[in-house]
Amino acid sequence: MSADGAQAALLELRAVSRVHGEGPTAVHALRGVSVSVAAGELVAVMGPSGSGKSTLLNLAGGLDSPTGGGVVVEGVKLGGLSRGGLAAVRRRSVGYVFQELNLVPALTAAENVSLPRELDGVGLRAARVEALEALAEVDMEELAGRFPDDMSGGQQQRVAIARALVGPRRLLLADEPTGALDSQTGEAVLRLLRARCDSGAGGVLVTHEARHAAWADRIVFLRDGTLVDDTGSALGAETLLSGTAG
Amino acid sequence: MYGYQLRAEFESRTGGTWPLNVGQVYTTLSRLERDGLVEPAGEQADKHVFYRCTEAGAAELREWFESPVNPEGRPRDELAIKLALAVGSPGVDVRPLIQRQRTHTMRTLRDYTRLKVDVAETDLAWQLVLDSLIFQAEAEVRWLDHCEARLERGATEAAGTAPGRAGARQTEGPDRALAGRRSR
Questions:
Q1: What is the band of B120 on the pLDDT scale with cuts at 50, 70, 90?
Q2: SS3 readout for A50-115
Q3: What CATH number is associated with residue A26?
Q4: What is the pLDDT of residues A116-173, one digit of tens each?
Q5: Which of A11, A168, A183, B54 has the greatest number of CB atoms lying within 10 Å of its CB?
Q6: DSSP code of B77?
Q7: Are the C-beta atoms of residues B137 and B109 closer than 8 Å to each other?
Q8: For residues B39 and B52, what is the distance between their CA atoms, to the nearest angstrom?
């Protein structure tokens, strides 16, 4: 179950670097980091603040451009794209879940979720059908007509995840997605991310919480912009308990 | 219940996390019998000896359930000992040691979390054991983060006040901390 390039990688970071500024004051946010995420795989990125976690996520989603190396999303090299082409990949391939949910308060849950599809040029009616499907997947179909302010934090986060995954998007990028949620609701959000990846999406989860990162297949550790370690992918569950005896 | 049943019951309630060998079960039963806490309650055709709790045994059991577990009674924490010895040992680089442990513990934590996905809602006992393992692993990772931050702070402070003696300063803190603990 390894995520080598041979498998259809949804996301490939190839020796990616990101330097802010120049000369002696230059800040190296990332130094030659390579990560690949296969379909069905959830990869967690851990590291202290300032280690480059969020930079990595921004590069993966085409929100920022690397100063070295390359980013490939679903086989498309982002480096060679025009501004418009990049925007299209961002909309069609990538879904984002941030700590700040950024739901539009004046729109209902269904309208929030269908918005990105309408921007994609899908007709209103089709976008609404897709939105209801996405909401159903996160068990929020019944609240489709509700406004964000009339929902709990956990419900809002579910809507945000539905919005991130509506339509054909298969790459899910999450930055501390459990933010201010209580631990029970936070766990529900992670179960949801996990389930989405199990059913074929790929995900990158940036978090400083060990308990949350533990939902991933693989955890990579960043420090000072460099990948310092990697847990590798999980073994079969039946071998797990042999280590805990005694 | 007889020995095999006891073992099966223990393992099913704890999800097989701490396997018992049946010899252990029988030695324990005979010790309990010697102390008057259990007594034989007949034999089955297949030679299995049944045991039941005596009144004293039931009282002892109640007492056990009602008293908190003393942390000092648990086995020594090898990891804490290892780190304590590593800090201040010449030629041991503590930071990679911490990272190796962190990766290892995260792997364990991930594997427990994976098991948790498959646990039936109704299997409360196994859920609780699994949660206990998860919380312990999580606490260990947090503690490792803390150790790393402490080391870094020590290094920065040392670099700021006495640039030439960074190494010496770094080992001073933990030594003092240990001395403090000893004197308590």
A1: confident
A2: CCCHHHHHHHHCCCCCCCEEEEEECCEEHHHCCHHHHHHHHHHHEEEECCCCCCCCCCCHHHHHHH
A3: 3.40.50.300
A4: 888 888 889 999 999 999 899 888 899 999 999 999 888 888 898 888 888 878 899 9
A5: A11
A6: -
A7: yes
A8: 6
Domain segments of chain B: what residues? 3-67, 76-183
Q: Which residues, other chains included, contact A211 with Cβ-Cβ below 8 Å and sequence gap of 6+?
A: B109, B113, B134, B138
| Domain-embedded: residue A117 | no
Q: Which residues of A touch B148 (CB under 8 A)?
A: 48
| Identity at A169, one-letter amino acid code | R
Mutation test of the interface with chain B: which of A43, A224, A229, choosing the one with the most B Cβ atoms within 10 A?
A: A229
Range of the domain at A41: 9-102+172-233
Cross-chain residue pair B109–A211, CB shorter than 8 Å: yes
Beta bridge partners of A35: A13
The residue type at A179: G
What six digits make up the tokens of A217? Answer: 């297949």
| Rounded-to-integer distance, Cα B89 and Cα B84, Å | 9
Calpha distance B30→B49 (Å, rounded): 11
What is the complex's ipTM, to 2 decimals?
A: 0.79
**B107 with A232: Cβ contact below 8 A:** yes
A163 domain residue, yes or no: no
Q: Is the pLDDT of residue B81 over 90?
A: no
Q: Measure the CA–CA gap between A80 and A72, rounded to whole angstroms.
A: 10
Indicate whether A154 belongs to any domain: no
Tell me whether residue A141 is in a domain. Answer: no
The verdict on domain B3-67 having CATH code 1.10.10.10 is yes
- Per DSSP (E only), the strands in chain A are 9-20, 27-38, 42-46, 68-73, 76-77, 94-97, 171-175, 202-206, 218-223, 226-230
Q: Considering only CB atoms, which chain A residues are within 8 Å of B113?
A: 211, 214-215
Neighbours of A216 (CB within 10 A): 29
Question: B109, A245: Cβ pair inside 8 Å?
Answer: no
CB atoms within 10 A of CB B123: 15
